[in-house]
Amino acid sequence: MSGGVDSAVAAARAVEAGHDVVGVHLALSRMPGTLRTGSRGCCTIEDSMDAQRAANIIGIPYYVWDFSERFKQDVVDDFVSEYSAGRTPNPCMRCNERIKFAALLEKAIALGFDAVATGHYANIVTDAGGNKQLHRAAAWAKDQSYVLGVLNTEQINHSMFPLGATPSKAEVRAEAAERGFSVASKPDSHDICFIPDGDTRGWLAERVGAEKGTILERDGSVVGTHEGAHAFTVGQRRGLSLGVPSPDGRPRFVLEVRPKDNTVVVGPKEALDIAEIAGIKISWAGLDPVQSGIVTDPSDPFECEVQIRAHADPVPAVARVVMVGESAELVVTPHVPLNGVAPGQTAVIYVGTRVLGQCTIDRTVSAVPVPAAAAH
């Protein structure tokens, strides 16, 4: 129970469905803030108190579990490490993967519980063979299956999402008001929970440090300088401070961040169009493509949809697993180019409404060829 409206209603529905429910709030910071600032951040003392009040109204036991050390190691430190390597991580994915459905679920099962129920908008469907699958929520506008794409078979088997069939968030808020929950009109949290002021660049600068470097065009020519490569992300336009205007006068965008030599590569907007992505750290949300009967051989290509951000539209694509030495890559070729893809992002693969699996984007192929001069 995060202290928000979704988890409060999910807990109440789980009780009404006949389950023996215990409310748990995760303390993810050793020094939590006292109050939220609007809808920024989460896991404050105020949030814990909101969750406590909802649990009291529902009539269930309530506990606060300290996962702050695990959260720092598996989410915050990972976030810093990924940015230091020039990648753009999604901390919500890591939190779901390593905290809510790993550390929390492990502890819950050890204590004798059967499942972890959350307020995520997603559905679990059981197929004809009795296998559980992760699917999109009924309300696509609120669907959160993307951030759950990291779940594996065992985790899906021990998960519940009571809000998955709810047609709108407005209905959840109305239900919360009817139940007397004080969080009925509480704003949704957004941004990165451990950077509540939203200043990701400043937060990273304190932890990674800032070192001046060069900004290059795709052909290798120097067009400016920067104060630290970690402050840039693929697709960024503002804050480049370029000293050399582009020949056609059009704006440039960040195309690549190279932390090893502390350089940033920029170019035209159309160069952000990506014709292919290759991902590592592949996982399947339930049965894999062979077990599901989608392909007969792991390397066979198959039609799917790929989604690269939580609120991005899914794009029709062809995916295939390719072995590179002893490691596997998930290579995805979209039917229309993806835009602004950055290494480190998560690509979630869907077949219809079903979440098939995910990978961490390791490299991309631009739809616009690199100028020949860059090869010299």
UniProtKB/TrEMBL annotation:
Residues 298-361 form the tRNA-specific 2-thiouridylase MnmA-like C-terminal domain. The keyword tRNA processing applies. GO terms for cellular component: cytoplasm. The record marks 120, 345 as: Interaction with tRNA. Residues 203-267 form the tRNA-specific 2-thiouridylase MnmA-like central domain. Keywords: ATP-binding, Cytoplasm, Disulfide bond, Methyltransferase, Nucleotide-binding, RNA-binding, Transferase, tRNA processing, tRNA-binding. One of its GO terms (biological process) is methylation. GO terms for molecular function: ATP binding; methyltransferase activity; tRNA binding; tRNA-uridine 2-sulfurtransferase activity. It is an enzyme of class 2 (transferase). It comes from the Bacteria. It catalyses: S-sulfanyl-L-cysteinyl-[protein] + uridine(34) in tRNA + AH2 + ATP = 2-thiouridine(34) in tRNA + L-cysteinyl-[protein] + A + AMP + diphosphate + H(+). InterPro entries: MnmA-like, MnmA-like_C, MnmA-like_central, MnmA-like_central_sf, Rossmann-like_a/b/a_fold. It is found in: Cytoplasm. The active site is at residues 95, 193. ATP binds at residues 26, 119. Its main location: cytoplasm. Residues 142-144 are annotated as: Interaction with tRNA. Catalyzes the 2-thiolation of uridine at the wobble position (U34) of tRNA, leading to the formation of s(2)U34. Belongs to the MnmA/TRMU family. This is tRNA-specific 2-thiouridylase MnmA. It comes from Glaciihabitans tibetensis. The gene is mnmA.
